[in-house]
Amino acid sequence: MTTQTTAAETPSTPTAAQAGLIGLPAPLGRALATGGGVLTIVSTFLAWTWTAEFPGDLTVYGYPGGLQVLVLIGGVLTTLFGVASYGVKGLGWLTPGSADSALKTAALGTFATAWYTVIAISAKLGGLVNLEPGGYVVAVATLAALLGALALPFERPEPEPFDPDDTGRERFRHQSRQKWNNVKAAFASEAPAPARTLPAYAEILVIAAAMALGLIVFTYGIGTEYDQLFIGFLLTAGFGFGALAKAGLVARVSAITARHRNITMAGAFAAAAAFPLTQSNDQYATIGVYILIFATVALGLNIVVGLAGLLDLGYVAFLGVGAYTAALVSGSPSSPLHVQWPFWASALLGAAVAMVFGVLIGAPTLRLRGDYLAIVTLGFGEIFRITVLNMDGTSGPDVTNGSNGISSIPNLNILGFDFGQEHQLLGATVGRFANYFLLMLLITFIVVVVFRRSSDSRIGRAWIAIREDETAALAMGINGFRVKLIAFALGACLAGLAGSVQAHVTYTVTPEQYQFAHVVPPNSAFLLAAVVLGGMGTIAGPLVGAALLYLIPAKLQFLGDYQLFAFGVALVLLMRFRPEGLIPNRRRQLEFHEETEAPAVLSKAGA
C-alpha cells in the first residue's frame, strides 16, 4: 500500500507569497508603523495617570519619567527604522541588514513595554479609570505601530507536505508548525553585506561609542529603583538589542571589534572601571563586585566546560578552597593559624592550593566521561562542603570553625591603600565595595587574558579537539588525559584566585556559601547555567550570563515564593529558542541552526 502525501496549498501569485502576517496593504502598514512610532514619542510627553502613587511619577506633562523613558526609546527606534524602511537617502547605514525585521522587532518591544505599563497602572491603582489621556494614546499608538509592522511583506517558507491519512490532531500540529514557521520568517533577517573599511580612528570611535552605550545600559539596569521599572528595562533592552541585530548594526560593530580585539578588550575594561565613578554610594557597587566574582569563576569554568567539554558539577568547591585558604592566612581572629600574609601571597597560595586540589581530584577521575565524570565532580563538591563543616574541633580537627566559618576577615591593605576606607578618585568618592570592584576587575582581566591566550594556543586547540570528538583526537595522537588534567587544574586555579578576593569582600567564609544549588549565586548550578546561557567557549558569553543570572534574581525578589519559578521558566524559554547561548561562538551556532550560512573562516575556538 502506497502512502500518498499532498503538498499544502501554496499561493498562486507571487504577491501572496510576499504578504504580511496581517492582511493590510504594505504601504498602509509601513505608514501605520512609522506614524505609530511618532505618536508613541508624543505620548511619552503626556501624563499617563493622575496620581503619583504609581512609581516613577507619570503625572507630569512635557517631561517623561520612569517607564515613559523606556517607551520613548522604543518609539524612537520604531520611528527611525520605519523612516529607514522607505529607503531615505542618508539612513542606509542604519539598516544594513533588514529594515522591515528591525521595525517589527522594535514595534513589538515598544508595544510590550507600553502595554505592560498600562496594565501595571490599572492593576496597582484599581482599574482603567486611573489612566490619563496619555495612557490611552500610548496604548493605541503602540498597537497601531505593531499591526502596521506585522502587515509588511516577507518571504514565506515553503509549506511542508502532509499525509491525507493524518488524524485531526496531527493536522492541527502540522498547521501550527507551519504558522510558527511563518512567524519566524516574518522576523528573520539576512546577514548584512560587508561594509567598507573605515579609517582606524573612526573604527576606534565606534568601539568607544559601543562601550559607552554598554556602560549606560548596565548602569541604568543595575540602578532601577522599583520592580516595574526593571521589568520594563528587560523588555526594552531585550527587544532593542534584537532590533539592532535585525538591522545588521550588531554584526557591523562585531566585525569592527574583531579587527581591533586588543582595543576592544581595553575599552571594555575601561568602561567597567568607570562604573564606580558613576555611583554616588556603594549600594550598586556591592552588586557589581559580586557580579564580577561570579563572572570570573564562570569564565574559569568555561575552560573546563566550554573548551575541553568536561561537565563539572562541583566547580564551586574550588572557589571555596581559594576563599578558605586566603581566610586562614588573612589575620582573622577566627583562624587557627594566627598569621597575616600580604594579599599577593595569599592570592597565589589560594590559587596554588585550588590547583593542587584540581589535580588531586582530576587525576583519578578524568579517565571517566560524560555523566560518570559529572557525578564524581558533584560528589567532590559535596565532600568539600561537608568536610569544612565538620572541621570544627568536635567532629574533626579545629581548622574551619565548622558552620560558623572564618569570620572578621580584615580588609586588604595593599601598599598603604586601605580597601575598607573611602578614597577620592578623579573627583568621585570611591567606597569599600567600589575599591574591591576595581581589584576584582583586575583579577577578571588576568583571567580573561589567560583564557584568551590558552584558547589560542596549541593546548587550546587540543581542548577543542577533545570536546568535539575525543576518540578522533586520541587517534590523532593527542594525550587526552594530560590535556584534560591541564584544563581541570587551570580552571581550579582561576577559581581559587577569585576566591581569595571573595573572602575579604564577604568578611566571613562559611560552608553554606559553596553548595551545589542555592538561591544566591555563586553555586555550581548557577555557574554552569551562566556558561551555557551566555555561550560556551567564548569570553563575553559567561560574563554576560553571570551578570544576568546574578542581577535578575536580585531584582525579582518582589515575586516572593514564585521568584525561582519565574526565573526557571525564563531559562527554559531561553534554552528552547536560543540553545546556543546569548553570545555563541560561530561553530556552536551552526550546530543548532543548520540553515545558517557557514562562515568562510573559523578561528581556533570556532568564534
Assign a percent range to the helix content: 55-70%
Major beta-sheet overview = 2 strands, antiparallel
The number of helices is 22
Q: Radius of gyration, Cα only, in angstroms?
A: 27 Å
The number of distinct β-strands equals: 4
- Listing every helix as H and every strand as E from the N terminus to the C terminus, the arrangement reads HHHHHHHHHHHHHHEEEEHHHHHHHH
Low-confidence stretches: 1-16, 597-607
Report mean pLDDT, rounded to a whole number: 83
Structural class: mainly alpha
Strand sequence of the main sheet, in spatial order? 1-2
What fraction of the residues are assigned to beta strands by DSSP? under 5%
The gross shape turns out to be globular
N-C termini distance: 50 Å
General description of the model:
The protein is mostly helical. It has helices at 14-17, 26-43, 67-84, 99-125, 133-150, 168-187, 200-222, 227-247, 249-259, 261-274, 283-307, 316-328, 343-365, 370-390, 432-455, 458-468, 470-475, 480-506, 524-534, 540-555, 563-577, 586-592, and strands at residues 413-414, 417-418, 423-425, 428-430. Strand 1 and strand 2 (417-418) form a beta hairpin. Helix 11 (283-307) packs across helix 19 and helix 16 packs across helix 18 (480-506).
Furnish the topology, listing elements before pairings.
Blueprint: H1 14-17, H2 26-43, H3 67-84, H4 99-125, H5 133-150, H6 168-187, H7 200-222, H8 227-247, H9 249-259, H10 261-274, H11 283-307, H12 316-328, H13 343-365, H14 370-390, E1 413-414, E2 417-418, E3 423-425, E4 428-430, H15 432-455, H16 458-468, H17 470-475, H18 480-506, H19 524-534, H20 540-555, H21 563-577, H22 586-592
Antiparallel strand pairs: 1-2, 3-4
Helix pairs in contact: 2-3, 2-5, 3-4, 3-8, 4-5, 4-8, 7-10, 11-15, 11-18, 11-19, 11-20, 12-13, 12-14, 12-18, 13-18, 15-18, 16-18, 19-20
Protein name: Branched-chain amino acid ABC transporter permease
Transmembrane segments: 31-50, 70-94, 106-123, 135-154, 204-223, 229-250, 262-278, 284-305, 310-329, 341-360, 372-391, 433-451, 485-505, 525-552, 559-577
Subcellular location: Cell membrane
